[in-house]
Specification:
Strand order of the largest sheet: 1-2
Structural class: mainly alpha
CATH topology of the largest domain: Four Helix Bundle (Hemerythrin (Met), subunit A)
Radius of gyration: 22 Å
Number of helices: 11
Largest sheet: 2 strands, antiparallel
Strand content: under 5%
Number of strands: 2
CATH superfamily of the largest domain: GntR ligand-binding domain-like
Distance between the termini: 43 Å
Length: 223
């Protein structure tokens, strides 16, 4: 194991064991290096690597702190990696969406507050009668993000948001080329909303599956 990897593992162990909690400041570099039996250079490399994935926060002139370790922070690195996807893998992203989003939608049907459900309806109502493709896609993204957040599971929400970027271009493409895409999207969004509002998780799950699978099937044929 490389020295830097060993240093990363030792800091990780300190966090997992609770010796370092979210928001805690790391000991001074010299003290921590001596304590862990590492060179200061190896420790610096480990801190730099952990800062890149939002485990540590290096504050110039103040010190190094453990971040909040919230899922959206830790999964931010996934979003960065996902941005490097190739067009020929976009179908795989839709396949993952088809697994995750129905589960989140079913959870939202039991977890969302009445106010959140009302706001979900407002998102649908905010779409103009004859929207541009850009307006339709923006509305679609916001609709699905609110549902993911409404699942009450921060990890699931962050994973779904990470998958939004790679599928945006395909959504725009579908809106431009598939006849009736606007009407179909509206109808399915309303059906998903109504199932959530009625607190019917399995119906919500089914409509979400139909919705994502429909786009996936169109993309499969288009490719």
């Amino acid at each position: 194991m490389a020295v830097t990897d060993a240093a990363i593992d030792r800091i990780k162990d300190m966090i997992i064991s609770g010796e370092l909690a979210p928001g805690d400041r790391l000991p001074k570099e010299a003290d921590l290096a001596e304590r862990l039996g590492l060179s200061r250079n190896s420790l610096r490399e480990a801190v730099r690597a952990l800062a890149l994935i939002n485990v540590l926060d290096v504050r110039q002139g103040d010190g190094t702190y453990v971040t909040s370790l919230e899922p959206h922070l830790l999964l931010d690195a996934l979003s960065f990696v996902v941005d490097f996807h190739r067009d020929d893998t976009v179908l795989q992203f839709f396949q993952v969406r088809r697994i995750l989003e129905p589960a989140a939608t079913a959870m939202a049907a039991t977890q969302m507050s009445d106010t959140d459900i009302e706001n979900l309806r407002k998102i649908l109502d905010s779409l103009p009668p004859e929207p541009s493709v850009e307006q339709l896609v923006a509305n679609d993204l916001e609709f699905h993000q609110r549902i993911a957040a409404g699942s009450g599971n921060a990890v699931l929400c962050s994973l779904i948001e990470s998958l939004s970027g790679p599928t945006t271009r395909a959504r725009v493409w579908r809106g431009l080329t598939q006849e009736g895409a606007l009407g179909k999207t509206r109808e399915q969004h309303v059906a998903i909303y109504e199932a959530i509002a009625a607190r019917q998780p399995e119906v919500a799950r089914a409509w979400a599956t139909v919705h994502v699978a429909g786009v996936e099937e169109w993309l499969r044929q288009a490719l």
